[in-house]
Amino acid sequence: MMPDRWLEAHAYFRPLADLSAQVERAVAAIDVPDARIPDWEEYCADFLAGVPLLSSADAAIDLEPCGQMARALLERLASGPSWGSLAAEARALETELRREPQFSRRIADFLLGDETLTLPFPGLLRYVAWTATARFLRPVVNAFDGWRDETRWLRRYCPTCGSLPAMAQLAGVDPGRKRLLSCGRCSTRWQFKRTGCPFCDTDSQRLASVTVESGLRIDHCDSCGGYLKTYDGQGNETLLLSDWSSLHLDLIAYDRGLKRLAASLYDFQPGGTSGVEARYTN
Ligand SMILES: [Zn+2]
Ligand SMILES: [Zn+2]
After folding, report:
1. Partners of 178 in the β-ladder
2. Contact of 216 with 246, CB cutoff 8 Å
3. Which value, to the nearest 10 degrees, does the dihedral of the CA atoms of residues 31, 188, 35, 67 take?
4. Which one of the ligands is nearest to 203 CA?
5. In whole angstroms, how far apart are CA 8 and each of 1, 13, 94?
6. How large a percentage of the chain has pLDDT more than 90?
7. What is the CA(260)–ligand 1 centre distance, in A?
8. With pLDDT > 70 as the criterion, what percentage of the chain qualifies?
9. What is the pLDDT of residues 240-255, one digit of tens each?
10. Which site among 41, 58, 205, 209 is 20 to 30 Å from 247 CA-CA?
């Protein structure tokens, strides 16, 4: 499915599609330092103990280059054609970042959960910094996919960065059909049990599901009221697992009183002429 065809049917996503395209172009234009591939044998004990790759001292992945990349991205976005208030917000954030001593180290810590970095537009910083990080980590994530025995993880959080999933995907055909969880931050996909809720770890009840449109559905849990947007197919991962392209599912879930427990870089509000207004989180 081409994004253009998708957008014809979902015109209210045009602003987010434009934002996403603009950020992708900016990422393609900045320098990407080489990421060192960890020694998997060194990391293995932590992996078996459930320690995500980025939290493992033995894997020793340094995210400081992501801070430099995030700043380069902000500079580009600040001077580029503006998507809504994007250029102005990027400029304000970049100006503040200049005043921050050791900003790249601070951003690396921020990515791993340090809350002490107080800057304007933290949602934009999170969005830009994780976009840079996903690009930086791409060779590591690919190598990790190749090394990892999926059946030894099966945890509800991302094996690379520790985030809760943004979405799920059902891939393959029965009897070997698998459910993968998809990380909205670092873009890792990992295997999880077919039934069961990744937010409360309940396995006794199957998730109930609502099909919204061909290929996309909402699986929800009676125990915790959480839900997971699920792409029921293969081949259109880039678009349909991007999280922003299914914010209308979040709106439907919201209308049903379900709770968004997924980790997302995007936010939405009911309202506006299109029924949904969406942007990166505040
Ligand atoms: Zn992740
Ligand atoms: Zn649950």
Report:
1. 171
2. yes
3. 50
4. 2
5. 12, 9, 35
6. 63
7. 18
8. 93
9. 999 988 888 998 898 8
10. 205
